[in-house]
Amino acid sequence: MAERLVATAKRWLYTTNHKDIGILYIITSLFFFVAAGLLALTMRSQLSVPNNTVLNDEIFNQFVTVHGLLMIFWVLSPFAFGFANYIIPLQIGARDLAFPRLNAMSYWFYLFSGVMIILSFFFGAAPDLGWTFYSPQTSFEFAPTIGLNLGAGALILIVVSITMSSVNFLVTMFKMRAPGLKLSRMSLFPWSILITIFMMLYAFPSFLAAVLLLYVDRAFGTFYFSSIQGGSLLWDNVFWFFGHPEVYIVLFPALGIIGDVIPTFARRPLYGSKYVIGALVAAAVISFIVWGHHMFLTGYGVITDKLYTVTTVAVSLPFDVIVISLIETLAMAKLRLKAAALFTLGAVALFIIGGITGVYLASVALDYALRGTYFVVAHFHYIMVGGSIMGLIGGLYYWFPKITGRMYNESMARIHFVFSFIGFNILYFPMFLLLDMPRRIATYTPDTGWGLLNFSATVGGFIFGGAQLLLFYNLYRSLRSGPPSGPNPWNGWTLEWALPSPPPAHDFDTIPTFSDDGTIHFGSSIGLPNGSSHGDGITKPDSSSIGHGYSALHAEGLSPWPILMAFAAFIFFLGLTIGKPANPQPVSYQPFWPLIADGVILGLISLLGYSRERFTVHEDSHVESWPFRQVPNMKLGIWTFLGAEVIFFGVLIGAYFFVRTAAPTWPTPGTVFEIRNGFAMTLVLLTSSLTAIMALASGRAGNRNGLIVSLAGTLALGVAFLYIKAGEWFTLGSGGVFNSYPLPATSYFITTGTHGVHVFAGMCMAVYLLANAIKGKYVNGDHVTLEHFGLYWHFVDIVWVFLFPLFYLI
Amino acid sequence: MNTNYLYLIIFAILIGETDIEVNLSSIISSTTYVTVLLGIAATKAILIAMYYQHLKYEPRSLSVWIILGIVIASLLMSLSFVQLSYHSFHYGSS
After folding, report:
1. Beta-carbon count within 10 A of B27 CB
2. A767-793: buried (b, 16+ CB within 10 Å) or exposed (e) per residue?
């Protein structure tokens, strides 16, 4: 019994299998869904009648904020990416994601980041200023508790998770599609995920940079957001550049599910599917140039107002195409109204209402009137809960038989839909009528006339919340005793339905092939799961043993390092965050060093373990991989990561330009930051790039001594760079530069500090490579690791090439 | 050409450009100084990416991929500056 328990725990803690991780994502996101829902119901109780005292102002603000953060970051996207993890490899004919251990690490970073945001309730107070974290409310003057620091730390961790996930999915979907599965032949769900990943890749680094600036401001007392030259306008720009695409990031996967579910139950292919995909691409692109409509009230002039009005109206047009396509698909169809179909149809109806009310807000005049009222709350809940959550629940019913091998209770699921749909509308429609009620207020007086509508909303909230109990009960009961589903209970057309339910650990015995006419051909050999070892005992899974035969295969593909690395990052940030600020202006900060040290030590141990672990990933040849056919998976992954880094540093440099342009004065070159220091560091780093490329050349040529000398040179030059940098930091810090030049010092320390961390990470890699080179590696045709290291090291060099003139010469 | 020589030539150009950057302020006017400096930095970055990161020898799709990232980062910066120019009255100078 105990042995079985240990084996089960080990499987779920160490798994790298995409299906296990998908299940973990779904369960964890549902847990956070319940947590966010309970916060919402408590808020609705408070607002049900005037002058209510269930919650005081402070607690109400914390509940509003954490509810919003949880729903947006820890529920909507992770719920969708639970399905993406489980289903996408099955739909595209891949055995797993491209980097299984990275996938596991993404999940654990996600989980620990969620733990951190909830922990914030126990450290003084949770963040309490709305999910938008508007500056200058985030300054210590207005938000003096550690809770906000924890919130910012949690956001950093989850963005790291999302970035790893984006890189992984992108490489998988571009490089690991089954032969014959051209991009144009993919169904809507994988397309929606692919487009979502693109948006994530470009939007989240901007957000990471914004939260990093906020975190450093709060943790170390720098001045980006507490200065008038940066302040609210800088935050608004970097936040909403991410914030508006984020709306589509949480919506698109649900649209993808709808686009797979409705054709299945209507027994007709999606009408104009290529136009739908084109519309998604168009909406994704336009979503990056509409962020200004969140800032109409900042008063940036008529021309810019007009620009953003036009782009905001324009972004609604692709969604018209999608809705028309869905309506055409349904026209004259003999629709089977199963629960999955009901939820997706309901999602479309609610999304239409949410979308139309959003177009109102493109008007500057209406936006001035409606901004910050419950009309906006109603609008975005119709999108995010009506469109997204309802669509995702439809996906849960749709794929539940595939994931578990069992059918759910259809009648109970339909009742769940009826109560959810009615409850939703009773909850949110009255908010459209609360045009004059400001959002985020904890109570109101009877003479406002808001009582009846609020009471109705609260009743609707409890109906909607109560209905979800039916979902959990139904799924729990069905998991234990539901009838077997068979491989394809819905007569679905996509590839996952051709596999047993649940599918075997390795997904496919042989990678299937797609013919030009759309038929799928399978071979008959035995497939191998990823993992550290492959014994002879692997057998074809028994699909009749529902849910159990699967776990027996899972001795393969286990790795302890992803969870340990994520835990190390968690305690590192916890240690950085929970120390107390001793002096508010500027903040004298006291981190909790024991936790930081533990995090660093554990991080280094797990990094070493991760890199030394013999973990094989099976890459099938002859797969569909346009447009990156000749680029190996790892190289594409690194370049994709560097693409995200370009955005990240672009935003940091943009923030520097922003405050510098706005600042009335700035120190002239050479007065604060010594040109000779910058020049010396530039020479050192450029030389290190030369030695790094020489290391690769030596590896290729089989020249062991040349390789060792070049790598040692790279490492020594990295040390020299950090030595000069540290000396400069010490001189400037002890000279009181923050008092004399607060904003130049802020931008300098944050930007060069972030770059310095990248140099240090590169040096850790160089140490590892050097140790291996001394043992004789990389000179026998196995030099590809040197090339990967070089890509990163040269990128760090390129960043410095820009930082040098910006900070030292102008 | 032997690739090692090529790497050395690129290195020499990079060092030369850095030297020009440092000595440029005494040669040209301050109004064009920033533009020229950023231009030189961009050429250095392109050289490193093309030859040290071997982008020149990779499939074109990869270059497009990277350029897309740079375009989006530039878009954010430039549109932010459009807004900032309208907000200059808040700060008195910009």
Report:
1. 9
2. ebbbebbeeebbbeeebebbbbbbbbb
Residue A147 and residue A580: Cα distance in Å, rounded? 11
Contacts of A63 (CB under 8 A, 6+ apart): A39, A40, A42, A43, A55
Q: Which residue of A has its CA nearest to B58?
A: A631
Sequence-ordered list of residues with C-beta below 8 angstroms from that of A542, at least 6 positions apart, any chain? A549
- Band of the pLDDT at A524, cuts 50, 70, 90? low
| Interatomic CA distance for residues B72 and B74, integer angstroms | 5
The amino acid present at A447, given as its one-letter code, is: D
Distance CA A709, CA A778 (A): 14
Inter-chain contact A794–B7, Cβ cutoff 8 Å? no
- The 8-class DSSP code of residue A299 comes to -
Measured in degrees and rounded to the nearest 5, phi and psi for residue A583 equal: -145, 115
Least Cα separation, residue A228 to chain B (angstroms): 8
The reply to whether residue B15 touches residue A683, judged by beta carbons under 8 angstroms, is yes
Residues composing chain B: 94
The position carrying tokens 């620091």 is A149
CB A318 within 8 A of CB A283: yes
Q: What is the ipTM of this complex?
A: 0.93
- From chain A, pick out residues whose CB is under 8 angstroms from the CB of B79: 289, 292
The percent of residues above 90 in pLDDT, for chain A, comes to 77
Give the distance, in angstroms, between the CA of residue A639 and the centroid of all CA atoms in the same chain: 18
Question: Could you give the CA distance from residue A670 to residue A673 in angstroms, rounded to a whole number?
Answer: 5
- Rounded to an integer, what distance in angstroms lies between the CA atom of residue A777 and that of residue A767? 13
Rounded to an integer, what distance in angstroms lies between the CA atom of residue A702 and that of residue A783?
Answer: 9
Burial pattern A135-149, b for ≥16 Cβ within 10 A else e, equals bbbbbbeebebbbbb
Closest to A93 in 3D by CA, of A479, A620, A591? A620
DSSP 8-state code for residue A438: B
Mean pLDDT of A525-530: 52
pLDDT for position A584: 53
Average pLDDT over residues A753-759: 97
Query: Does residue A547 have a pLDDT over 50?
Result: no
At which residue do the structure tokens 């890749």 appear?
A201
Q: Smallest Cβ distance to B53: which of A233, A791, A809? A: A791
- The answer for B 62-81 residues in CB contact with A (under 8 A) is 62, 65-66, 68-70, 72-77, 79-81
Q: Does B37 touch chain A (CB under 8 A)?
A: yes
Q: How many helices (H) and strands (E) does chain B have?
A: 4, 0
What is the rounded average pLDDT of the residues A362-371?
Answer: 92
Q: What is the dihedral of CA A87, A88, A91, A92, to 10 degrees?
A: -160
Question: Within 13 A of A298's CA, how many CA atoms are on the CB side?
Answer: 26
Tokens encoding B74: 């530039």
In three-state secondary structure terms, A177 is strand
Task: Give first-to-last CA distance, chain A, whole Å.
Answer: 70
pLDDT for res A689: 98
Residues of A with Cβ-Cβ distance to B25 under 8 angstroms: 669, 809
Instruction: Give which of A693, A791, A797 to mutate to test B binding, by max B Cβ within 10 Å.
Output: A693
CA–CA separation, A534 and A555 (whole Å): 9
